Amino acid sequence: MAGNFIIEAWTELGIAIVFILLRLYFRFSQVGLRGMTLDDFLMLFAGALYAVETAAAHVIVAVWLGMGNNNFTPEQRAALEPGSQTWQYAVYGSKGHIVGWFMYTGLIWTLKACWTIYYSRMTDGVQKMDIRIKVAWFLNGTTYIAAVSMILFKCWPLHRQWQINPDPGNNCYPGASKLSVSFITSINTITDMYLMAIPLPIIYRAKLDIKKKISLIILFSGGWIVIIFGLLRCITLVSVGPTEPSESGQWSVRESFVAVLVSNTPMVFPLLKRWAGIASSHSASGSYPLHEYDKSDGSKLKSIGSTTMRSRGRKKSRGGFVHPLSIPNDTAWGSDEAIVGAEQSGKAGKGSEAVVQEGEERFASGRGSKSGRGVGSGSAGPGNIVMTREWQVSDA
């Protein structure tokens, strides 16, 4: 049984590391090292945490036989000789579970930060979305502190969490504490659900058909898979017998594996699709190939997704033209930015409607509008309006 888990754990780690490296390769090949953003580097940190978590689970299962201070009856505790091999396995196993908990929470909340950074870019300039991002950061920070505090202070002083005799109680079982696993699973689920809800208002207001809206909702709902694994982990640990070996490490590794894949798949999929030669089949239907990144600015893709109007230093989102949506498209994020432009277009005034009628070609080529003003010019006189189009491309 232990051998099967060890094979599973290291295989999952290998796949997760490959996904992270593919994501970084994709980003580097498009924007270079200077164009990479904080969430890219945080993903490297997440990979390191996942590796340590897997190593801790390996040692707990293979070396310390999955033991902890929860594996004894009162009679066995009284009879157990301090310093014996069984006693050492239980003590070291309990300490290993504590390390695993720290790695698990660090990884999961690092991935939440990556998603929040992405959403902050995706919703930049969209009215009433800044507060949602601030709430997300507040939830991420406070819930992480709460999770770490639960790991440390659910049983204090700390050495009681590897105490054998007398029985320290369920709260002091690092691998089987019902309070700890229930609390951390709850706040993890709440924050995941909130993060998945951030783009929903934009999708709802977007001028898209129902199929495309459903596709976008699915794109942003991968967190449900992580939630399901988290709940399975919680149920398994809460229902473990009082003297049975804990499976905390095994289920933590599984949930972490799924979380890493969900967070990186949107960046890895278009790369694999390009390598498979599938991307060309989408270019005719409105998707943009990977080479359309504007490499002078790694976060922007020239397109017709939205209209930005700047007048006297103030920027207002305008326009009603929405780029044809393809899910998933070659950059995976073009669709996300299209819904921002679509949501904003619903609030455009009559002046923007005249702009829309000028057609896609006029804006793409930088030719003048009806008034004869240049579009895309780098300068404008006082009081004039400069109209540009930008497509924001970023990653989770």
Automatic annotation (TrEMBL):
Residues 22-274 form the Rhodopsin domain. InterPro entries: Rhodopsin_dom_fungi, SAT4-like. It holds the Pfam family Fung_rhodopsin. It is a multi-pass membrane protein. The chain crosses the membrane at residues 6-26, 38-65, 98-118, 138-159, 179-204, 216-239. Keywords: Membrane, Transmembrane, Transmembrane helix. It is found in: Membrane. Residues 295-327, 344-396 are annotated as: Disordered. Residues 369-381 have a biased composition (Gly residues). GO terms for cellular component: membrane. PANTHER family: PTH11-LIKE INTEGRAL MEMBRANE PROTEIN (AFU_ORTHOLOGUE AFUA_5G11245) (PTHR33048), SRPK (PTHR33048:SF2). Belongs to the SAT4 family. This is Rhodopsin domain-containing protein. It comes from Ampelomyces quisqualis (Powdery mildew agent).
